[in-house]
Amino acid sequence: KQLDWRRLMHILIAVYWVTLAVGVVQWLAIHLDVDCVVEYFKHLMARQYVDGDSPWGGGRPQFLFAEPSYIGMHLFGVLLPLMWMMRGRDAVYVRRLRELIVTFAVMAVLMGAGTRIILDSLVALAIVVVERTRWREFASRKRGVAAMFGVTVLGALSLLLDDRLGSIAQEGMTGDGSFYARIWQSLGPLMGLLRHPWTLLTGYGAGNLADATHAGATDAVGILEVFGGDTAGPAGWYAGITHETMFTMSAWTSFLVEFGIIGLGLLCAMVLRHVARTAGWHKTAVCWLILVGYLYIQFEGYAFYALPLLIWSMRQDTEQIAYTS
């Protein structure tokens, strides 16, 4: 459309800084007991987490996102790739994006916005180290190994300092309610595929996750019982979900159940072929692809622009992002 991309980047960066500022206001209101501010955001958000009585684990800032767990999708699915795209175009925007990403991630962790942002930050940091390191050069490889060791240390500290991560490490899938829910929300529809094996190839069709879940509910509950998990909550949820309320929290699960192995295979093949033909298998493209694939494991919004941004950017100007190869 021949729009000025610098103006668009300026607006985007400003909007995300405003989002961070809103999260700080929410955190202060929560910890200083400013009830009027908490009540405002409680009624503003469709699914609020700022109130301590929230059934989804309240008393934490959610910024302007639908859920605090979506922070990583924005930071590492949108802003980090944009920073990669800006290299070779505008060093000022590279610096501004880096400052925004680091500040947002650190603030979100320190304010206790959620456990997923900790995991996402560790994974993204490891991928950034791999992407930035020139492994054929001894000095760069030495720094890269040291950086990866630092990421490992941060991961170990996260297990010690974050109660939810520590509980998951010690007790497995039942160590955290949210983590456990993500497992059984996907397990139901996946067992529905096995209940009707022909659907493994073609899926249940778009929008029919609830049908798959109802078909696989009994088998899913049985598996949860075998592994010692609570089954009352999952069984009740399986029975009560409808086409309007069903979700899996994993794009990979949802796409497989809806479109089968054939549909998922075609999607992956088209994306991989597009990347290979337009950008080639240089390091930045591979790291970007892996990062996007990871982020969608715990996020199922097909319309979210992390994957479209990857596909579009590879088509626009591959030389600009390939300079680190």
Could you outline the blueprint of secondary structure elements for this entry?
Elements: H1 5-31, H2 35-44, H3 71-86, H4 91-110, H5 116-132, H6 138-161, H7 163-171, H8 177-195, H9 199-202, H10 209-226, H11 232-240, H12 251-278, H13 283-295, H14 306-316, H15 318-321
Summarize the structure.
With 325 residues, the protein is an all-alpha fold. It has helices spanning 5-31, 35-44, 71-86, 91-110, 116-132, 138-161, 163-171, 177-195, 199-202, 209-226, 232-240, 251-278, 283-295, 306-316, 318-321.
Structural notes for this entry:
The protein is an all-alpha fold. It has helices at 5-31, 35-44, 71-86, 91-110, 116-132, 138-161, 163-171, 177-195, 199-202, 209-226, 232-240, 251-278, 283-295, 306-316, 318-321. The chain starts with a helix and ends with a helix. The relative contact order is 0.09.
Q: Give Rg in angstroms.
A: 21 Å
Biggest sheet record: none
The average pLDDT is 90
- Subunit arrangement of the protein: single chain
Helix content: over 70%
SS elements, strand count: 0
Distance between the termini: 30 Å
**Which ranges are low-confidence, i.e. pLDDT below 50, for 5 or more consecutive residues?**
321-325
Q: What sequence of helices (H) and strands (E) makes up the elements?
A: HHHHHHHHHHHHHHH
| Number of helical stretches of at least 4 residues | 15
Query: Into which percentage range does the β-strand content fall?
Result: under 5%
Structural class, by secondary structure, is: mainly alpha
Describe the global form: globular
